Amino acid sequence: xxxxxxxxxxxxxxxxxxxxxxxxxxxxxxxxxxxxxxxxxxxxxxxxxxxxxxxxxxxxxxxxxxxxxxxxxxxxxxxxxxxxxxxxxxxxxxxxxxxxxxxxxxxxxxxxxxxxxxxxxxxxxxxxxxxxxxxxxxxxxxxxxxxxxxxxxxxxxxxxxxxxxxxxxxxxxxxxxxxxxxxxxxxxx
Length: 189
Hints:
Layout: E1 2-10, H1 15-28, E2 32-39, E3 47-55, E4 68-73, H2 76-82, E5 86-95, H3 102-105, H4 115-121, E6 125-129, H5 131-138, H6 144-156, H7 160-170, H8 176-188
Parallel strand pairs: 1-4, 4-5, 5-6
Antiparallel strand pairs: 1-3, 2-3
Helix pairs in contact: 1-6, 1-7, 5-6, 5-8, 6-8, 7-8
């Protein structure tokens, strides 16, 4: 059986590091893993999407609409944008942080109101959390990705030590403490 995880966010939020850690954890647990990154205008705040697929045998790195078991969103509007990829019965974990896309910044659009409420109203299993506040609590706003990784990890492979060991191996030494705190806050959220 193959599990499909779609990680979405905005450039600069650390989605790629989160997918790297996730892929490494699953590989070290003996799974066949495929990770594919799709970069939009990531350096200008555009969408960044990563597909993570793991299981006994994974033949393609891509996830089609309606196939994601888990949609991990680093920004609220990205959750809405990528929702069609979540399968029936799948779970959405989203950060409640809002980052204005270029169309809103330029005044051509308005950021939608009550995005999380609309997602829940659509009948989707939604866990919405303020990962930015938890990252601040851990010591760095740049640790939002690790908070969200912790929240997802508890649902995917709830052995906290395996994840922490991989985080230690993947982040710069000076950020290990903050990332461990952020992961733990997300894991317990």
